[in-house]
Design brief:
Blueprint (H helix, E strand, L loop, with lengths): L2 H13 L17 E9 L2 E2 L4 E6 L4 E6 L5 E7 L2 E8 L7 E7 L4 E3 L2 E2 L6 H7 L2 H7 L4 H11 L5 H6 L4 H10 L35 H12 L21 E7 L7 E6 L5 E6 L4 E6 L5 E5 L13 E3 L4 E6 L4 E6 L4 E7 L9 E6 L6 E6 L6 E5 L6 E5 L9 E2 L6 E4 L4 E5 L6 E5 L11 E3 L4 E4 L6 E6 L5 E5 L20 E6 L4 E7 L3
Parallel strand pairs: 1-8, 1-9
Antiparallel strand pairs: 1-2, 1-5, 3-4, 3-6, 4-10, 6-7, 10-32, 11-12, 12-13, 13-14, 15-16, 16-17, 17-18, 19-20, 19-23, 20-21, 21-22, 24-25, 25-26, 27-28, 28-29, 29-30, 31-32
Helix pairs in contact: 6-7
Heme C binds next to α4, α5, α6 and α7.
């Protein structure tokens, strides 16, 4: 059997024991507390509004949505003191602190929400998809902006900024290509990455040249441009509202989590940081976060990208800007191997595990993430390296590059795609929200569904192979900045884990079906 399937089955087998919301776990029924209430807007009881509950002294916040009757319920809470607040696009946040719940008791709190009128606050509340839709521009101009500015932080920085024509021209030139952008605060990428900055007119993407983009930006986000009305997508209704979202705040300032993977034993969710040399883990039961500094390379920006498990349960991480693979032993909590790539490789963020058959020798794969499509296969025992050519998106012989080849994100098509492993047939599921940039998708072979959390739209997308239906679930907080997301399905109902890079959070998402 293919090694990748091993890991997946292992996750499913272990999942049952870790299914709980941290607040629910280990609590016996009579010890559980709950908080319920209603949310009322101008037009009466409000459906599909997020309400968050934060236990005093904890690093995580749990969100549920109001149902058709405007009611929300937090079940299975640990007794204690909570702050409860609304998080509803278009409305001001209302918050009540010091709600004490005792074991076996239920506390009640009702909210009355007022429309938000402050433009910058509305910008904060909107997804990049909603902001782009709201820009007072032609579809072609929006397309050009999405093409040029959609990848890293998207519409948000544009919407909240105002600059003169000269300043926009400077910013556009600076933002010109991925290589010339460095994670804020570091020393800059290797010099070979910089390219000439002024981008010429393009046939495929008309209006995306530096000058046109700067002019458009200045027209609607110049010093005197009027603010534009922001149109939010309709709120969730019906089954879209039946979700529990928990956000774990990484306590380190400026944390930018990149990749998440569930520990094969199911105790922790591990993550890498995109702009800092840190690995970290979230304790699934308690929500506690622990971080591990990883050695860096002088004159190379810090940051890690991909994470994979090797069959011995070590974590393999791609240290992207430093161009190397790091092996971390999660039991001893130490780095146990470092493999450098040639200096010409500006970035080496991709890592994988290769094995010819279940008992074959283990090899590591490290790939030149963006520039040249090449990789090295490393024998971790002997340190021997073999260079391999890579085909974009395809597997490398028997190497698992951390993708689910059955499901994938198709960015250009704004769809997620299922490839039937037997027949090779492809099924495409179009994402409903505009401007989505689905990076990847994961499959749940038990329920025949695929999941994705595409950048730009800040929604979880579920594609059902049985019914052909696509369902989108809004999220309470928006990632906005670089939203490369990895998800693993784990329990029943399945739990998705992904990052909110901009806010420095690890997110747990569960659709409940009872
Ligand atoms: C390759 C990634 C990338 C692309 C593409 C990109 N940016 Fe940026 N941009 C960044 C980074 C990184 C920052 C620094 C702020 C940060 O750390 O988040 C930034 C910052 C900004 C800021 C300043 C925000 C502030 O208030 O500090 C503006 C404005 C901005 N970008 C506009 C644009 C525009 C307009 C485009 C399209 C022409 C664009 N960006 C394309 C990566 C990118």
């Amino acid at each position: 059997m293919h090694f990748r399937n091993h890991i997946f089955i292992l996750f499913l087998a272990l999942a049952g024991s870790t299914a709980g919301n941290p607040w629910v776990s280990e609590l016996r029924a009579q010890e559980e507390a709950s908080i319920r209430g209603t949310v009322t807007g101008k037009a009466g009881l409000l459906e599909g509004g997020y309400v968050g509950a934060h236990a005093t002294g904890k690093t995580f916040t749990t969100y549920v949505m109001t149902d058709a009757a405007g009611q929300f319920t937090f079940r299975g809470l640990a007794p204690g003191s909570y702050g409860v607040f609304t998080r509803i696009p278009g409305f001001r946040t209302v918050r009540t602190d010091g709600i004490n719940v005792e074991a076996g008791k239920e506390a009640a709190v009702d909210f009355q929400v007022e429309p938000e009128t402050d433009f910058l606050k509305l910008v904060e509340q909107a997804t990049n998809s909603e902001l782009t839709e709201s820009f007072p521009l032609s579809p072609a101009q929006k397309e050009a902006l999405a093409y040029r500015c959609g990848d890293c932080h998207g519409a948000y920085y544009i919407a909240k900024s105002r600059f003169t024509r000269e300043d926009w021209a400077m910013i556009v030139a600076k933002m010109d290509d991925q290589g010339s952008i460095t994670p804020a605060g570091d020393m800059g990428p290797p010099p070979r990455m910089s390219r000439p900055s002024a981008r010429p007119p393009s046939v495929e993407h008309p209006g995306s040249d530096d000058e046109s983009i700067a002019r458009v930006l200045w027209q609607f986000r110049g010093p005197d441009s009027p603010d534009f009305p922001i149109q939010f997508q309709p709120r969730a209704t019906g089954k879209q509202t039946r979700v529990i979202v928990t956000e774990y705040q990484i306590p380190r300032l400026g944390a930018t989590p990149r990749t998440v993977v569930i520990d094969p034993r199911g105790d922790y969710v591990w993550y890498s940081d995109w702009r800092a040399n840190y690995l970290g883990r979230v304790n699934i039961q308690t929500g506690e976060i622990k971080e591990y500094p990883i050695p860096g390379v002088k004159f190379r920006p810090p940051g890690l990208q991909r994470l994979r498990w090797d069959p011995m349960g070590n974590l393999l991480a791609g240290q992207i800007w430093a161009g190397r693979a790091i092996r971390f032993d999660v039991n001893t909590e130490r780095v146990t191997g470092i493999w450098d790539t040639p200096l010409e490789w500006a970035r080496a963020g991709g890592v994988g595990i290769c094995r010819s058959g279940p008992d074959g020798p283990i090899r590591y794969l490290i790939t030149d993430a963006l520039v040249r499509r090449q990789g090295w296969i490393i024998d971790p025992e002997t340190d021997q390296r073999t260079e391999v050519a890579l085909r974009w998106g395809g597997p490398v012989s028997d190497c698992d590059r951390g993708r689910s080849y059955n499901w994938e994100g198709a960015r250009a098509k704004r769809a997620i795609i299922y490839r039937d492993p037997e027949t090779g047939t492809i099924r495409e599921f179009a994402i409903l929200s505009p401007w989505a940039r689905p990076q990847n998708a994961v499959g749940d072979p038990v329920r025949n569904v695929g999941w994705s959390v595409p950048a730009v739209i800040d929604r979880v997308v579920k594609a059902d192979l049985n019914t052909g239906e696509v369902t989108e679930f809004p999220l309470p907080s928006h990632g906005k900045t670089i939203l490369n997301i990895d998800i693993e399905t784990s329990s029943d109902p399945p739990v998705l884990w992904f990052v909110n890079q901009r806010q420095g959070r690890i997110v747990r998402f569960q659709e409940y079906t009872e």
